Amino acid sequence: MNEPSDKLFTARLGDMVALCERDGAAVFSSFFDERQCVEAEEWCSRNTGALRYRLWGGYEEARRRMLAIYPDYCEDYILEEFPFVCLTFYYREEDRLSHRDFLGSFMGLQLKREVIGDIVVTDGAAQAFVTEVAARHIIGSLSKIGRVGVKITDDKPFILENAQKFHEISGTVASLRLDCVVGLAAKLSREKAASLIRTDRVEVNHLSVSSVSHELRGGDILSIRGYGRFVLSEINGHTKKDRIHINLKKYI
Q1: Long-range interactions of 111-116: CB distance < 8 A, separation 24+
Q2: Residue 1: its pLDDT value, please?
Q3: Which of 104, 225, 99, 84 is nearest to 163 (CA)?
Q4: Over the stretch 121-172, which tens digit does the pLDDT of each residue have?
Q5: The sheet that has 116-122: what strands, in order across it?
Q6: Quick one: which of 30, 167, 170, 203 could link to 114 by a disulfide (CB 3.0–4.6 Å)?
Q7: How far is 94 from 160, CA to CA, in rounded Å?
Q8: Which residues contact residue 63 at a Cβ distance below 8 angstroms, ignoring those fewer than 6 apart?
Q9: CA-wise closest residue to 244 among 177, 187, 193
Q10: Residue 66 has pLDDT above 50, yes or no
Q11: How far apart are CA 78 and CA 52, in angstroms?
């Protein structure tokens, strides 16, 4: 973390620790994006001392999450204390809405991105995690997403955890080096894949990686600018020619 913005971010984390130590009570951040979550996890593991910390976005696979720093006596109920709610939106199934439609409508209410967590959209229903203040504003001000009328409730549990859709990609690679897997995922030659990596267009688990020989592991998330996001979901052994058979899931 060398950029000015990174220093400001770590300063915010330090302020949270100081406030928790001073007041002896849990302190919560706004919603972090995926990269911030990784950086917060790394920083907290080294700097929170006897305090506990937890990143949570409403469900286990949430991409956008809040950070809680808290004394150990809060452990049993900390998830109940996170200051966000799950809003559920209902609309006609034939009215196709997307994540972008919902985010655009929320931003149109002058809400900042940091008060909005994950938004999961399916046919006829969507759910969004937002701060408690943002939830009141959305419920009181929003009756349509774009031109589509919606009914909003804040009394439903999160039920769309498995709504994320993927396109399956299977193939063989010479090794689990980053350039090999990026080539399969993006359908590029190894040389073009290496060029993407060296020009900082590839992230592994939300952090930029510029080494073509970086070794991947099962479960790693690849973000390839211009080609999408992928999960290395399975590593299935070697072929007779000693190539490795892998499965990738591409987010759609």
Answers
A1: 111/137, 111/138, 113/31, 114/30, 114/31, 115/30, 115/31, 116/31, 116/64
A2: 46
A3: 99
A4: 999 999 999 999 999 999 999 999 999 999 999 999 998 877 777 889 999 9
A5: 116-122, 125-131, 84-90, 151-153
A6: 30
A7: 18
A8: 33, 34, 57, 118
A9: 177
A10: yes
A11: 10
Residue with tokens 């966000």: 84
All residues at 6 or more sequence positions from 144 whose CB lies less than 8 Å from its CB, including other chains: 105, 150
How does residue 2 score in pLDDT terms, banded at 50, 70 and 90?
very low
CA proximity to 232, closest of 248, 245, 216, 243: 248
Mean pLDDT to the nearest integer, 35-44: 95
For the sheet containing 207-208, what is the strand order?
166-173, 244-251, 228-238, 221-224, 202-204, 207-208
Give the Å distances, CA to CA, from 69 to 133, 165, 173, 183: 21, 33, 42, 40
- H or E element at residue 127: strand 125-131
Q: Model-level pTM?
A: 0.79
